[in-house]
């Protein structure tokens, strides 16, 4: 099931319209549903010692999860084992992607082309507006790609 750009945009508009308290409650609700995935995503911020990576990852996770919800797609809970099984082939994919810069590799392996393109544009906008550094943006893109791949693999039948 491919998410449509319209549902992704609707999700982003919804999340953007929340005040800080509502955003915190909203994000915590999704984070409770995917504790292992969120732990993995947040570990990147710790690993890179980058606060901006933490809040931006939370924001993009919330938008992505809301987009799946608005599309009527249920996501199974992602386990630590599923994350670990995903990482080696994902790292190989990144090596090949960096070598070829072929976006089709990402779309084919991770699924969700519209979501990948939307998230890349969001990250680029954050860099251009100087909300985040280019280094944070690069790390955020890798974290976001892994998140999209894991969410796509966890779509309930």
Number of DSSP-assigned strands: 0
How many helices does DSSP assign? 8
The radius of gyration computed from the alpha-carbon positions, rounded to a whole number of angstroms, is 15 Å
Q: What kind of sheet is the major sheet?
A: none
Task: Give helix and strand order, one letter per element, not per position.
Answer: HHHHHHHH
Structural class: mainly alpha
- Low-confidence parts: none
Shape: globular
- Through-space gap between termini: 10 Å
Binned, the helix content reads: over 70%
Mean pLDDT reading: 93
Note the beta-strand portion: under 5%
Please summarize what this structure is:
By secondary structure, this protein is mostly helical. Helices cover 79% and strands 0% of the residues. It has helices at residues 5-16, 20-33, 35-47, 51-70, 80-100, 103-110, 113-128, 134-153.
What does this structure look like?
The chain has 157 residues and is mainly α. It has helices at residues 5-16, 20-33, 35-47, 51-70, 80-100, 103-110, 113-128, 134-153. Helix 1 packs across helix 4 (51-70) and helix 7 (113-128) packs antiparallel against helix 8 (134-153). The radius of gyration is 15 Å and the shape is globular. The model has no long low-confidence stretch (mean pLDDT 93).
What is the topology?
Layout: H1 5-16, H2 20-33, H3 35-47, H4 51-70, H5 80-100, H6 103-110, H7 113-128, H8 134-153
Helix pairs in contact: 1-4, 2-4, 3-4, 4-8, 5-6, 5-8, 7-8
Task: List key phrases describing it.
single chain; 157 residues; mainly alpha
């Amino acid at each position: 099931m491919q998410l449509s750009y319209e549902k992704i945009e609707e999700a982003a508009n919804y999340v953007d319209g929340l005040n800080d308290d509502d955003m915190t409650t909203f994000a915590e609700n999704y984070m409770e549903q995917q504790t292992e995935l969120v732990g993995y995503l947040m570990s990147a911020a710790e690993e890179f010692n980058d606060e901006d990576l933490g809040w931006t990852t939370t924001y993009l996770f919330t938008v992505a999860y809301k987009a799946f919800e608005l599309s009527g797609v249920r996501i199974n809970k992602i386990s630590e084992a599923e994350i670990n099984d995903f990482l080696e082939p994902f790292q190989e994919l990144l090596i090949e992607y960096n070598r070829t810069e072929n976006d089709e590799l990402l779309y084919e392996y991770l699924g969700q082309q519209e979501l990948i393109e939307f998230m890349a544009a969001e990250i680029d906008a954050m860099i251009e507006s100087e909300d985040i550094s280019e280094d944070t943006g690069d790390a955020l893109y890798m974290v976001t790609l892994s998140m999209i791949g894991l969410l796509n693999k966890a779509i309930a039948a």
